[in-house]
Amino acid sequence: MTTTSHGAGAPPRPGSPATPGLGTAPGVRVRDLTVVYKTPLGELPALGGVSLTIEPGTITGIVGESGSGKSTLALSLLNAVQPPGRIKAGSVEIDGLGDVVELRGDELRRARGRHLGYVFQAAQNSLNPLKTVGKQLLDLGRSHGVEDRSALVREAKELLERMGLDGARVLDSHQHELSGGMRQRVGIMLALVLNAQLVILDEPTTALDMITQATILRIVREVHKERGLTTVMVTHDIGVAAELTDRLAVMYGGRVVEHGPTMEVLGTPRHPYTQGLIRAIPRLSGDIAEAQGLPGRPPTLGTLPVRGCVFRERCPLRMDICETVEPPPVTHGERTVACHAVERSHSTAEQEEYA
């Protein structure tokens, strides 16, 4: 069964909010976003002045090693960073909502679900084990003031059946009666059923077998296109990012170190960290020794340098300036890179070109 189309003049979906620009994929502008966590050593930064533009209607991937700040950035898009963390500075401007960082109370709660959808990394952790999926769906509808509960259930069944599941059976099931892939699809349904236009998926294929992973990716791609969404996907899997995303943001140490069209970033990576990530990918053919892991370990909250480049301890292009000055993000064309060595190389190439 396919999801019912709602064109111009058609009645709104059951969770439809009275939001300007409804049905239009929103753009997102993150500016100088700093998130800190309170620790015995004081407040330590998990995100250090991140700036990122997400174009309307795109699928943007956020990649990097564990601890790079990917999930913290994703949660910040919903102003959902929980104590002991907090957003210390910066803004997250979303079309139709304004600065999400400034939203509080009922206004923020209404924005989540009705405008912003989130699919959690561990799908089973986002479901109440004591309630059926259907009861949790009705709870969601009540919390967002949905009056037509029957229409909400019909929409949920359509979404689930669109994803290859028996909608009635799933709504009557508890989480332990569903497989990992089924729970992940339930998470996608709950993120979309109130007509969210910005959807954030946090590691949507983690711990799933290869066939189920492929199914989830196909569903994400199709639903993104059919509903006209802006989608953000957090993943540690470069292959998943290559298959699904339009643009890619590479994170390290709470910074976005490279950002641009996915095929350009993966085909001609400029930042030494991006190059190291790609070199570490195992090959199915050729010389196995060509896959080389990055030396050293990624920094933790307690070991992040307070000045200079966060990647310098593991960087083959390290220079004296990297010790004291944090490289600013520099944009050339559609690519943005934060690296002193890359920018110096680019400047040298330009000087030679015009000499």
From TrEMBL:
Keywords: ATP-binding, Nucleotide-binding, Transport. It comes from Sphaerisporangium flaviroseum. Residues 28-278 form the ABC transporter domain. The keyword Nucleotide-binding applies. This is ABC transporter ATP-binding protein. The keyword Protein biosynthesis does not apply. It holds the Pfam family ABC_tran. GO terms for molecular function: ATP binding. Residues 1-26 are annotated as: Disordered. NCBIfam families: oligo_HPY (TIGR01727).
